[in-house]
UniProtKB/TrEMBL annotation:
GO molecular function, a single term: glycerol-3-phosphate dehydrogenase (NAD+) activity
UniProt-listed Enzyme Commission number(s): 1.1.1.8
Domain Glycerol-3-phosphate dehydrogenase NAD-dependent C-terminal: 196-341
Gene Ontology BP term (one): glycerol-3-phosphate catabolic process
Native organism taxonomy: Eukaryota, Metazoa, Spiralia, Gnathifera, Rotifera
Organism of derivation: Didymodactylos carnosus
GO cellular component, one term: cytosol
Protein name, UniProt field: Glycerol-3-phosphate dehydrogenase [NAD(+)]
Pfam families: NAD_Gly3P_dh_C, NAD_Gly3P_dh_N
Glycerol-3-phosphate dehydrogenase NAD-dependent N-terminal domain: residues covered: 8-176
Length: 351
């Protein structure tokens, strides 16, 4: 009987990775429809002289990335990524997008041929030839298994605390989508399955760039109307990007949690917004602020802006996306933060 149960592994144990471990571990214990033990890959580090894996396995808490939340005892931390992935039927990949390519290359020889993956990572990947790929495509290329996505308005600490929210799963495989939903959905974390996988993922990456712009606006003291304009013009660019480069999706997809809802929550409550506000107020650079403010957590927005500019440059289309361009130029210190206003004022929306 137990041989037939599917085995789940979680690759990543940051703020969101640990939250997903909490949800999935509890669901598996409750429903018993998957193999009970879940290996969770932890990028090893020392905390007050103790290994983070030992802290998680002994105290059932990720004291660094999700303090204050108990992880179920069927979640077992493992510092070896290949060992974590071995024998898994379902790989939940929840790493900051900067680390996906390298981590996947380390585990690729251990992957079951019948396995599939779900990516929770928001961002793009630029390879050495400056070609831009979706993170799900990198996972698929490296591991040679299908990769679906889960994106939504999901500030991890709130999800871990159990306040109501929702997410969008992108999958065109009915059977796999139902397995993902069964594994992740709870009464407080509702899942909607949609087939527009690529656009769902792209929205998750692009909204982080708009959140950086929202943070700049807050740092400049512009108030709620300006921030609403940033959000609206940012959404317009997100929609345009999807229409130009991922045509054929259902237009209602922008109204799902992966679209407008994730954009709103990140522009108000996210790390990208917070650090961008501090960037304007303190004059420190993004890397310094990330280290000072996030205790090891990683920002995705400034890198995503650089990745999107590579993409747009290769298509000769930077001029159609002035907000994305301005965010990148401000992060790189080629543009004064206050000139964000010029990008808004002269937006193609008003031509
Ligand atoms: N935190 C949140 O509220 C949400 C995050 N996401 C997305 O989920 C993804 C993962 O985010 P989080 O779990 O929050 O991560 P995080 O921001 O907490 O990142 C830190 C994680 O990266 C690991 N790490 C550091 N250096 C590494 C290396 N060289 N190789 C591998 N791992 C390394 C750390 O050990 C830690 O587990 C991101 O793409 C993020 O955009 C999505 C929804 C919500
Ligand atoms: O993706 C997120 C919420 O859905 C988290 O956004 P931040 O990375 O800006 O905190």
């Amino acid at each position: 009987m137990s041989d037939k149960l599917k085995r789940v592994a979680i690759i990543g144990s940051g703020n969101w990775g640990s939250t997903i471990a909490k949800i999935v571990g509890n669901n598996i214990k409750k429903f018993g429809t998957f193999e009970n033990e879940i290996k969770m890959y932890v990028y090893e580090e020392m905390i007050d002289g103790k290994k983070l894996t030992d802290i998680i396995n002994q105290e059932h808490e990720n004291k660094k990335y999700l303090p204050g939340h108990k992880l179920p005892d069927n979640v077992v931390a493992c510092a070896d990524v290949a060992e974590s992935a071995k024998d898994a039927d379902i790989l939940l990949i929840v790493l900051p997008h900067q680390f996906i390519e390298r981590t996947c290359s380390t585990m690729k020889d251990q992957i079951k041929r019948t396995a599939f993956a779900v990516s929770f990572s928001k961002g793009f990947y630029v390879n050495k030839d400056k070609k831009v790929e979706l993170i799900s495509a990198v996972i698929n290329r490296q591991l040679d298994i299908p990769c679906y996505v889960l994106m939504g308005a999901n500030i991890a600490n709130e999800v871990a605390a159990g306040t109501f929210c929702e997410a969008t799963v992108g999958s065109r495989n009915y059977e796999h989508a139902q397995l993902i939903k069964g594994l992740i959905q709870t009464d407080e974390f509702r899942i909607v399955i949609k087939p527009d996988t690529e656009v769902i993922e792209v929205l998750g990456a692009l909204k982080n760039i708009v959140a950086v712009a929202a943070g700049f606006s807050d740092g400049l003291g512009f108030g709620d109307n300006t921030k609403a304009a940033v959000i609206r013009l940012g959404l317009k660019e997100m929609v345009k990007f999807c229409e130009e480069f991922f045509p054929g999706h259902h237009p209602q997809i922008f109204l799902e949690s992966c679209g407008v809802a994730d954009l709103v929550t990140t522009c108000y409550g996210g790390r990208n917004r917070r650090v961008a506000e501090a960037f304007v107020k303190t004059g420190k650079d993004i890397k310094t602020l990330e280290e000072e403010m996030l205790n090891g957590q990683k920002l995705q927005g400034p890198d995503a802006a650089a990745e999107v500019m590579e993409w747009l440059k290769s298509k000769g289309q930077t001029n159609k996306f002035p907000l994305f361009s301005a965010v990148h130029d401000i992060c790189e210190r080629r543009l004064e933060p206050k000139l964000l206003l010029e990008a808004l004022r002269h937006h193609p929306e008003y031509w």
